Amino acid sequence: MKTDSKEILDLLGREYPDAECALVHKNVFELIVCVVLSAQTTDVSVNKVSPKLFAKYPDAESLAGAKAEDITEIIKTIGMYKTKSRSVVNLAKALCENYGGNVPDSYDELVKLPGVGRKTANVVLAVGFGQQRIAVDTHVFRVARRIGLVSCEGGFSAKSAGQNAVLDTERQLMEILPGDRWSEAHHSLIFHGRNCCTARNPKCDKCPIEKMCEKNGIH
To answer: Which residue in the list 137, 168, 205, 215 is annotated as catalytic?
Structure first.
């Protein structure tokens, strides 16, 4: 690997000093619901509907008692709203039935919950519980592979590459990044993917790590 992961993190950290979870939340319960809602939807879109959702359903117990149709009315502006409505109600029910309405801080327990996959679990553990985790979303997947932090076999789209490629990307990042900076890397790569290293027409002339980037697939 040609790239220096620590130097890249340092440069991205200076470029995006405020990089953090963009989903607005007050507690871990709100966080996990927001992350489930954010699948294939922008954080901005979720932030527009979540205040009304949590004003009506502020905790797992109240949300567990809701009907999916009621949730649909609140979140219908985001993608996959019908499926997500069922998921968050079932998620709340599972939290009440198995965890006293609290969100567990264990990866193995989190992925048992409805609507919670590997990425969601890692985000909750990193943001909600302060654990060092790398959650590979579409931005992390694309940027890490494009700039040469990890191998790019299978392309740059997480959706088209498949779950095995996403998991492999996470494992490679865990191997080459300092363990105490995994969560930082997650947020920095997301911010870089949103603001500079976009899927189409990346702004290479304005990139803070341009000299270190291998520019896979965009010569």
So the answer is: 137
**Residue 203 a catalytic site member:** no
Q: Say how far apart CA 28 and CA 219 lie, in whole Å.
A: 42
> How far apart are the C-alpha atoms of 78 and 41, rounded to whole Å?
6
The pair of three-digit structure tokens given for residue 55, joined into one six-digit string: 């004003």
Choosing from 43, 84, 93, 119, which is the catalytic residue? 119
Encoded amino acid at 38, one letter: S
Structure tokens at 108: 């193995």
| CA 78 from centre of chain | 16
| CA-based end-to-end distance of the chain | 18
**CA separation, residue 138 to residues 20, 53, 108, 145, 175 (Å):** 16, 26, 23, 11, 20
User: Would you call 168 a catalytic residue per the annotation?
Assistant: no
Q: What pTM did the predictor assign?
A: 0.91
Place of tokens 């304005």: 206
51: tokens are 């205040």
The pLDDT confidence band at residue 177, using thresholds 50, 70 and 90, is: very high
Instruction: Name the pLDDT band for 163 (thresholds 50, 70, 90).
Output: confident
In Å, how far are 108, 153, 203, 207 from 218, measured between CA atoms?
Answer: 38, 14, 11, 14
